[in-house]
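MODEL INPUT / OUTPUT PAIR
PAIR INDEX: 1
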Amino acid sequence: MSQATTLARSIVHQLIELGVQDFVLSPGSRNAPLSIALYQAEKKGLINLHVRIDERGAAFFALGISKATGKYVPVICTSGTAVANYLPAVLEAFHSDVNLLLLTADRPERLRRTGSNQTTLQAGIFGEFVHSSIDTSSPIDLTHHLDHTGPVHINLQFDEPLLESDNSDWLAGINPKKLSKTSHPKGTFDCTTRKNVVIVGHDRAGIDVREIEEFAAAIGAPILGEDPLVFERSVSHAPIILSDERARNALAPELVVVIGRTTLSRSVNAYVSGAAHVMVIDPRMEKIDRARTATEKHFQIPRLAKKRERDESWFELWAKYESLASQAVSELPEWSEGRALATIASEIQQDTALFISSSRPIRDLESFAQPRGGVVTYANRGLAGIDGNISTAMGIATFHEETYAVIGDLAFLHDLSALAQPTQDPLTLIVIDNDGGGIFSTLPQRGVEGFEKIFGTPHGQDLAKLVGGFGISHESVASVRELQIAMRRVHPGLHVIIATMPDREANADAIGKVLTKYRELVAL
């Protein structure tokens, strides 16, 4: 049997036995041994094989599956520039601690630096952004490389011949098993303060919602969640509440517990920085965010020495400012980006998955949506990029009966090639179309000379025509009512809703008016 076939079969056989089920493949010549082995494994019903022609999108597609399943998802490509296209998803996986396994095919080591076709220096190409990097031409034991979390790179040197006529049943007697991962022992915490707050980053650091809610209740703390769709009893409109310094002072905490990363709101981060005592809970501090500062740090939610009785006056104070923020939010125009995100949050059905892209959509959700539960949410908040969002949503959709994704128009255009292979799983993409980079109109660079060219970046595209060119089901909406009706329709596969918004400057002015109204109410 050829070296290439032996190596490919060994890798695939081991991964199946380690419980890996989903594989994402991009076509190529040098990875032919893996492609054939994977096809044979799928034919026997042992794996799910997803083929994506664009390596960059393939890596984000695999990232989405891993986010949804928590399992390692291999993404397989040929040699050369194909490998480099994985880097954006690798960075996101590293900073999110997502289980992405990169299987890159390569020429033999003897051909490196010789001018050989499609041969570059692939070994170690991802540097510190993978937790293991292996360069091999021989079968290896994968077990100890996958007993943790985060991205792993295996660079496989395949020598000629790449094809094999051997038809032996190399998958006979395969015995899948569950891969165990190490976990940290819990610390202990004695809560002696009364004015406590729990602030939860969008991905919750992978910690279960119920465990967070129980911990918050045990220390008598209201929850401020960057993601209001999973904490039904959390404080609504937290970024608006804390946007006023007088409110931050009135709500000054004795203890702030930050779970995960808070990456969305400057006002929330200003509140955290002013706290007397800050506890951070995030397992990523062990190997990724090692330089995080806090009074106290834990990898998991600690055990409590004793429960703290809830201070009703503390909760009433938060309710007061929450009511003021709600009054201010009511000033939003009937059709605006904030109103659209609030509508999506309320309309989405129970037990449905929702992917929210970075930039304005995720911030509007945090600021304007009413808290609720029953939605499984996802976002690429490792580096908060707008690349690969459609592909990530498609990957997530493979695991859920119904999935929605909210994506800005620039993020949509950035990953437009994903529409060339539309998912067959139920996925509704809602595109917030404001003809450019709307978030920049809410940032300090608004109004600088050349703003439209270098920040606003109007694209001038008719998104409905672009989607229609791919033969994909779509519709346009321009009001809350039209959006509600569109969301209530059921579609068997990919469907795109284009929400045509007022201009970016008007949206920024609307947000400014809400914040001004809130400051006026606080001052009364």
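PAIR INDEX: 2
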Amino acid sequence: MLLDHFKDMLHEGQSLGATWIMHSDGLTIETTCEDGPASKGIVFDVTAANPGATATIVIGKPLGSIQRFHMVGSRCREPLPADWAGVTQVSLVNSAPMGCMVDDADRNVLSFAYSFAQDEITMRYGVDEEHVLFVVMLQIQRVPGHSRLLLMDDGLPLDETMRLLVEWVADGSAPLPMADKALEPVFSTWYAYLQNVDAETLGRELDGMSRLGCGSIFIDDGWQQYGSGRGYSGCGDWVPDPVKFPDMSATVRRFQDAGVGVVLWIAPLLLGEKAHVFKTLERYAPIHDDGLGRQFHVLDPRRKVVRDYIGGVCARMAKDYGIAGLKIDFLEQAGAYQGQPLENPEPGDVTDVGEAMRLMLERIKTMLIENCGQVPVVEFRQPYSSPVIAPYSNIVRASDCPADALTNRIRTIDERLAAGNRVVHGDMLLWDVNAGAETCAAQILASFFAVPQISVPPSAMSNGQYESCRFLLSLWRKHRNVLLNGRLQPVSSILGYPLVHAFDGNGTQVSGVYAPDMIIDVDADTRTLIILNASTENNVTIRLHGDGGTVKLTGHAYDCTGAITMQFEEDTDTFRENGDATITTIPVPTYGILELALER
């Protein structure tokens, strides 16, 4: 349907096997001498006769074995939408013009990436039912004079394909250095307190969160003056509420002295009518949003005065309060100015929203580096997932999915595939404090291949929940290197990654089991095996690979609070006589842990 609707306005272009490209008037698309990443694909030069005009590129592929379309930063995960249903507005702060069509074994059937990832592009995609095709259409609002298009159909696994696409789009841009605190578990105030947060309450929880192993506290919305009522009418000044936080710098020092860094939430583009700075900046925030009672104006980042003001605010917060960094939110609001005329431009203003956002984020980055006294923590959340925005943060967090462990797991693994040099954090973890310890464990294990963010007050947890949280975070810290820096191997993206592996290259394997009837393949060089049993079964099944020799398995199973439930010791052949790998089933409690040493 999509293709038939636009076909008369398009011209046939280049092809890659059965894959073809069509394009609108004014574009020329030609094969270059440049190979795709690691020579796995073909790069096409895209030249526009009229830079700044609208343009369209269409990629089509016979449906064949395609089972799912994997996108960057997507919070909607319909595997194969119809082409009349799949649409997203791609921009610097929303997804990226790239994607991967995979088969049922997560092998790349066709992937693509477009180099112009800064400006807004409408990306339409899905199954063309009339022609049994998968079609992707890029409707570019302001095409550059020269850009590039990458196509790959190499059959590589999804994780390898995404790594190559991300590296190609990033094009060597320097990342923000990693902050030490970005690699430690977080206590987030958001689900715990919403906007009802204050220094006294947090101080009472400091010892509990420190003993859990939280290396930082992210003080979310509500710390700022007029930050109450779930609205944003007071945003803009970014000074502490004098009642809730009478001395923010003293609060920060108290936490730092306990080894817990403080990160403050900020929504730099929001301007509320209660803010003292409102009258000064109102003329630079003509768009108003009062939906859902939020009540704010949106600052126009195309204005130099806006970018300078926001940069100054970030510098002041870092210098005056001594914070470890910022959690930066609501960047997508800049899209309200896409396509809007810029009235009475002033020196330093820019007309393009994408370029303006890049300049604003560069300004924030510079101000934080100069004033934090250390590498700053900078958190973005999905869908701020583009490789082009990556140099301005060192954390990307799964977008909000309160108490939804399944969605949190899928979003963190999806984000791991596109994060590049950034570390991925799970969404803040929420559970019912009246439930059992297993409820707490289910949430933590869902974000185990990312950095967990706890958002239940330690004092509100039951003893069992606290012990579960303490034990699992201790285990996470022990194996943090393999979990965050090892080779990630998720299984079956179409089923939501029911099995996830991480390998450190030195014989350690961590495997998370999230569904019944999963078999964990154990590499021949594995010496230490950790299995997270986040399924509903009371056992795990491993399949040992090797050269036919005997493997001695020794270790322990633990319940979710860290209590030993079984000591295990067994000699096992790696291959049976018929050549099949040996399968061993070991009792492990639901939401429990198995730690094994393998001696070959």
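PAIR 2 NOTE: The CA atoms of residues 11 and 597 lie 61 Å apart.
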